[in-house]
Amino acid sequence: MKILALDTSGLVCSVAVMEDDRLLSEFSIQHKITHSELLLPMMEEIKKRIALDLNTIDAVAVSAGPGSFTGLRIGCATAKGLCLAMDKPLVAVPTLDAMAYQFYGSENVICPMMDARRNQVYTGIYTFVPEKEDEKHFETYFSMKTIKAQAAMAVEDIAEELNNIGKTVVLLGDGIPVYRDKLEKLLKVNYIVAPAHMNRQRASALAALAQIYLRDGKTVDADSFSPEYLRASQAEREAAEKKAGGDAQKASENKTDKKNKKGNDSIYIRDLKAEDITAAAQLEAVSLGSEAWSEKQLLEASVLDDTVYLVAEKAGNVVGLCGVRNISGEGEITNVSVASECRGRGIAYDMLEKLLLRGRAIGCGDFTLEVRAGNVAARGLYEKLGFVNEGARPGFYDGPKEDAIIYWKRNSTND
Amino acid sequence: MNEKNVEKIERRTEEDGVIFMSIKNEEEKESVSTDKDITILAIESSCDETAAAVVRNGREVLSNIISSQIALHTIYGGVVPEIASRKHVEKINGCVRAALSEAGLKLEDIDAIAVTYGPGLVGALLVGVSEAKALSFVTGKPLVGVHHIEGHICANFIEDKSLEPPFMCLVASGGHSHLVYVKDYGEYDIIGQTRDDAAGEAFDKVARAIGLGYPGGPKVDAAAREGNPDAIHFPRAKTTEKSYDFSFSGLKSAVLNYLNQAEMKGEEVNKNDVAASFQKAVVDVLTEHTMEAAAEYGCKKIAIAGGVASNTALRERLEQECNNRGYTFYRPSPVLCTDNAAMIGAAGYYEYLKGSRSGMDLNAVPNLPLGNRERRYHGKS
């Protein structure tokens, strides 16, 4: 399998062409951030130097975020254009996963950090788990496991997570020089700062990880693809904050209040945070009735390493919730609910689409879920997302008594 | 790789600098001449519309796809660059695909790819530029970077197939107010421009001040139809003698002052009268300058372009003044006045004929100057 990989998510502009276990070419520049001027000429150069016939490419891989908003857009728009013109699938690899993959086989914990400004980093925690093929040989294979899926968080918080894990950690990424002094004080575990040849994004690592994705059929639809920014735009954040503030002091009817009253219809999908728990549990209670989880259940589930919980936020309010748990490689989707007044706007679809992507990042290959047989809207949605009805559990639900339909989205089925 | 391919690639490297020509269309390259139909795929993403179009010979629109974000930005009272840029990434492939399929063509049927690379919002422009470069890279079709405003001017070529330069063009949009003398295809002399706010910007600000909201142009236009244009006299900015430059910030301030004073006195303001009177002041200035310039340049053809060109009062007034003087008045239909890719295809066609080509290092240029911008030429024009 031949992959053309590109990463423009950070300070490095990097392109690679990889065929199976051969890195045919890699070209990286970390000089000035003019990725728009660099990316295509670099590709052109590679194409020329290795006499690359673009028809032989099997897939395009792109660093799918987080990262510099502009950098992600250059990379993703380019990748989309390439896929459209070549009629090839797109492999979207989370930026930090690809960065961590440079340390294949390491027995340490890997923690890439990208500077996300405002005292935050885009980060995640990874480890490599040995899988011995058979007893006769000594070669060890590793698979990368995600301990903490990529997120935007305070340096203090990620340091605390690393301290809790208690293992030696390898640090890399452009966030390290920025927060090195801080990390020095915060970290209570041994740490290694990666040297220059492996301390930034590299398209070769992205390509290597993308090969696994491609082998497992984890491609995405290039036309509808957009990167995972992990952050709403400033305007959306401000609007959400204003709205929240406006609600609190609704009594004072002033000019700015009038503006806010027009409301904010944009939906922002992000990770469930501790402060959302009450709202999320209420949403569940309304949508799912007796099957709803309690706040405690939800909180406990959401902090596990093998789960991802997402919420849809509208003007500061939680209007949607969904979660996935990785049970030995199978993603069990739970707690899907959307506030009744916000239904029919594609929120659930957007949320689940993200959840599937994030689920893959924590190692879920196939996904499964159960739904009330009579819930036509939900079933239509799951089928639209590529889920297939594979059976039923008669009389599974109470009040009213109803069958549960079991849906699966298998690896082999395309997105 | 077979021998044939190797041979072709070697031929390509020999003629370095012709890197935009692919192996595939090598035969076609030799036959490129003005006699042959030239079909251009155009992409535009400079502000809040993601657009793609297929245009034949600069004048015939085979498809014109526009994915508008206006509804999205209305919430924020204006275009939010980050949101606009994100939407472009989402929509761009869909627009390109729709443009091709509506034209009934495949990517390989296209002769060149034209894209807006400025002026505009840098993050937004980059999406179109990146997409266009990727398409050009894979297909080997030549890439032609187009100036957004030159695109607006060229919308007139689509609207009226008989229009030929030279003509005088008033360009007025959210970010621009220019009086341009179009000497020849692809040759633009700026003879007047705004010294401060663009006309469209003034419309947006005034619309916000009288509570009409975004987008300002159409809202003011609609309100003005219900109001009396002579109710309030707002000052017309006088720039120095013999200059065709515009200034709208004074006018905008006058409107804001009027509103403030009315509020302090506790007087009820008739929004429609304010809109109508403000609009009349803008139209007066734009029309006078255009007519004076036309007289000086001996130009009997007047065209308008840009978002503000869809303003009814401006169109009516210019048309009337043209009729009085025996000039011909050209104006694009509203769909061609707003941002669209068909106009980029028209401008791109004339650039293509002149031999203007962009390299794979084409970047977005948010403040790209009109007219005397740098162009790279290739081959005979």
Structural notes for this entry:
The complex is a heterodimer of chains A (415) and B (381). Chain A is built from twelve helices and 17 strands. Chain A has helices at residues 35-49, 69-86, 95-100, 155-165, 175-186, 203-215, 234-248, 255-261, 277-288, 295-302, 347-361, 376-384; strands at 2-7, 13-19, 22-29, 59-63, 90-93, 109-115, 120-132, 140-154, 169-172, 191-193, 267-271, 307-314, 317-327, 330-338, 366-372, 388-397, 402-409. In chain A, the strands form three sheets. Chain A has a seven-stranded mixed β-sheet with strand order 11-12-13-14-15-17-16, sandwiched between helices. Chain A has a five-stranded mixed β-sheet with strand order 3-2-1-4-5, with helices on both faces. Chain A has a five-stranded mixed β-sheet with strand order 8-7-6-9-10. In chain A, α1 runs parallel beside α2 (69-86) and α4 crosses α5. The model of chain A is unreliable at 250-264 (pLDDT under 50). Chain B has helices at 3-14, 26-31, 70-74, 81-103, 122-139, 148-159, 199-209, 216-225, 249-264, 271-297, 312-325, 334-337, 342-353; strands at residues 39-44, 49-56, 60-68, 112-118, 143-147, 167-172, 177-184, 187-193, 301-305, 328-330. A five-stranded mixed β-sheet of chain B has the order 3-2-1-4-5, sandwiched between helices. In chain B, strands 8-7-6-9-10 form a five-stranded mixed β-sheet, sandwiched between helices. The longest helix of chain B has 27 residues, at 271-297. Chains A and B meet through α1, α2 and α7 of A and α1, α4 and α5 of B.
